[in-house]
Amino acid sequence: MFDKQVTYKRNIVKHLYFAGELSCADLSTLTNKSVPLTARMLNELIGEGTIVEKGYAVSTGGRRPLMYSLKPDLMYIVSVAMDQLVTRIALLDMHNNYVGEVHSIDLPLAGNPNALRDLGQHLKEFLKQAKVPKNSIIGVGVGMPGFVDVVKGVNHSFLKVEEGNSIISYLESVIKLPVLIDNDSSLVALAEHKLGAAKDRQNVMVLSIGWGIGLGMVLDGALFRGHNGFAGEFSHIPIFMNNKMCSCGKSGCLETETSLVVVAERAVKGLQEGRVSMLQGLSLDDMEATSNAIMEAALKGDRFAIELFSETAYNIGRGVATLIHLLNPELIVLSGRGSLAGKLWMAPIQQAINEHCIPKIAEDTEIRISTFGYQAEIIGAAALVMEHYDTLRLAKSKTAGDHQVV
Ligand SMILES: [Zn+2]
């Protein structure tokens, strides 16, 4: 498809995107190519305006190597982060900086036959307003909840397409750019593993706390997807005898006692029953505003709001205890929308682990809050595009023939 040098250069670009800065020796090791060949490619990439020299690395005793990084405005990625209620669209550069505003759209997915068409229209509109040339955008990464088949490009839960069609081909026909899709929790895990709190770790459980409790599993250094790609349905493990109906149609799932929806429902009920709190006028009609208000109140020290998170976090911890027993992870990362509540999650989760885990198995498992937080899915959608950068069909530029990058 591409000649060897183009493939190698794209591979270098990919490694620099994920690492930020690398030396010639680092790149030679990572790509398994000789140092002279790597040095020649780096010189060509500098000449082409793709990469820049970043000066010498901090000394570790020997000769300090010259470091290279990607030019941030080299090219751009459109990231789409969907959850069941809200879709965010952002344009990111090669250093994962936002270019312009993040567009946030109310786009309910459950029972919405127009969801895919609406997404296509919003993307088209977003691209029309983007402040960069379209041929500098290499692709669109889309994260979405549900059972996503990334190969066939379909979602078995939402954004339904007719038999034989795919979400990918539909969106590509509307926006004329390469599109990649994946499950939202997998993208949160990808962001954390490649660029965030789980970087360079081998066995990590990345929880995505939102309208459900998503899970991305990094096992032996790679994202584990299971036989059909549906691994990690943490939200639906049956650990409660509460007779509460779950969104999946079963009852007693982890999600029935732990999502931000549950936090909001308990908050509204508590206030109706006269609980004292700085929270006022909450409504379940605007779930996003309500859950943000509760997180804000909890961070300001509101006792009732903190209690809501403690109860939820303890229940998440019961689920985490199961994960620790099964998979012996070195790290649990709390990510996603709910991680904005930060440290409030940590102590109750740890408490549940203390109560429910065999100490020997849990003693080396660390819990960390994501530094990406609510941005993790957006970063993950961009990382998804860059993961496939070496095989991506790039847009043709009328002025420069093939895409001018590499
Ligand atoms: Zn369920």
Automatic annotation (TrEMBL):
Belongs to the ROK (NagC/XylR) family. Transmembrane segments: none annotated. This is Putative NBD/HSP70 family sugar kinase. Keywords: Kinase, Transferase. SUPFAM superfamilies: Actin-like ATPase domain, Winged helix' DNA-binding domain. InterPro entries: ATPase_NBD (IPR043129), ROK (IPR000600), WH-like_DNA-bd_sf (IPR036388), WH_DNA-bd_sf (IPR036390). It comes from Pontibacter mucosus. Signal peptide: none annotated. It holds the Pfam family ROK. GO terms for molecular function: kinase activity. The lineage of its organism: Bacteria, Pseudomonadati, Bacteroidota, Cytophagia, Cytophagales.
